[in-house]
Amino acid sequence: MKTKLAALLVFSLLALSCQTGVPAKALQLGPESLAVRQLQSRVFDTSDEMSLLSACSGLMQDLGFNLEESETKLGVLVGSKERSAVNAGQVAGKIVVAVLLGANLAVDKNQVMRASVVTKPVGESKERVCVRVTFQRVVYNEQGAISKRQPIDDPQVYQEFFEKLSKAVFLEAQQI
User: Fold this and answer.
1) In this structure, what DSSP letter does residue 173 have?
2) Of all residues in the chain, what percent are helix, strand and coil, respectively (each to 5)?
3) What is the CATH number of domain 40-173?
4) What residue segments make up the domains of the chain, in order of their start?
5) What pTM did the predictor assign?
6) pLDDT tens per residue across span 36-46
7) How confident is the model over 149-165, as pLDDT tens digits?
8) Is the dihedral of CA 71, 72, 74, 79 positive or negative?
9) Is residue 102 left, alpha or beta, with left meaning phi > 0 and alpha meaning psi from -120 to 50?
10) How would you label 85-119 residue by residue, b for 16+ Cβ within 10 Å and e otherwise?
């Protein structure tokens, strides 16, 4: 009888702790989201979305990204590149923990950098094209598990990307 009562109590507590529906603030954007979107977006004075996508594709490849997905009709490009994520401090910490405690900590091994480009015609007569690029990194440890997943929000990265894209668009327009 006591086990049934305990099971009923546990079940009741679990049922009460379950939230039903979507939380009220789940779809609200934070105040920083507009600033991040502005950092990631530029509008180009051209109606030729395909040539802009071509310039984005070439730039991504020049930056070392391998194109994984390309849906030009939707204005989407996705690429990635893999780099080392070995950190000397983590390796030293692993050695210290192994010596002192005999434990084997997993340290970061590699990271995958992802870039996503989305284009969209804007303006009343679609005379301009907005380009939005986002960069993320996913870090894997020695055991192949994800240790970090984070967006890259460094303004310098986006500024450099758009400067290079502007040059690429100019060179492509001049057929150089």
Assistant:
1) H
2) 40, 30, 30
3) 3.30.310.80
4) 40-173
5) 0.73
6) 888 999 999 98
7) 999 999 999 999 999 99
8) positive
9) left
10) beeeebeeebeeeeeeeeeeeebbbebbbbbbbbb
